[in-house]
Design brief:
Blueprint lengths: L1 H20 L2 H8 L1 H24 L11 H7 L3 H11 L4 H8 L3 H15 L4 H10 L5
Helix pairs in contact: 1-3, 2-3, 5-7, 6-7
Length: 137
């Protein structure tokens, strides 16, 4: 983060040096003060935009990977992991059953199994623990 700030400071210093070197008063009389101020404003606006883009650029996030060690140690099956993912998206038992092609009772039994494996008592706490263990994004 300090590198772009230092580059910006150096460029500002070079800009001040260039103004002195070009004998600002001579150029102001020759071309008019408004034109020079416009050029200076454009230069600083360009530097500001460049600095803003440089400082706010985000690195692409890596794709989510399931914590297979936690999944295996808890004994969570592939189907239970799918149901847990749908649970995180806020689906009801009927919605999850419809989406995965299961019966609502099967979904209910998988959710009960997940609750016992994760040692939780509700959907919200199951989602929190699953996210903590990196089982779902």
């Amino acid at each position: 983060m300090w590198k772009p700030v230092l580059i910006y400071a150096v460029l500002l210093g070079l800009g001040v040096f260039a103004l002195e070197w070009l004998q600002y008063e001579f150029l102001a009389r020759r071309f008019g003060l408004e034109i020079l101020l416009t050029l200076i404003a454009l230069a600083f606006a360009g530097l500001g935009v460049w600095l803003g883009v440089t400082l706010t650029r985000r690195k692409p996030e890596a794709a989510f990977q399931v914590n297979t060690a936690a999944q295996q140690s808890l004994g969570i099956t592939r189907r239970e992991l799918e149901i847990l993912g749908e649970l995180c998206s806020g689906g009801t038992n009927k919605d999850i059953a419809r989406k995965l092609g299961l019966s609502p009772n099967t979904v209910k039994s998988h959710i009960a199994s997940l609750f016992s494996k994760l040692d939780v008592s509700g959907r919200v706490s199951a989602i929190e623990k699953a996210r903590f263990l990196s089982l779902v994004p």
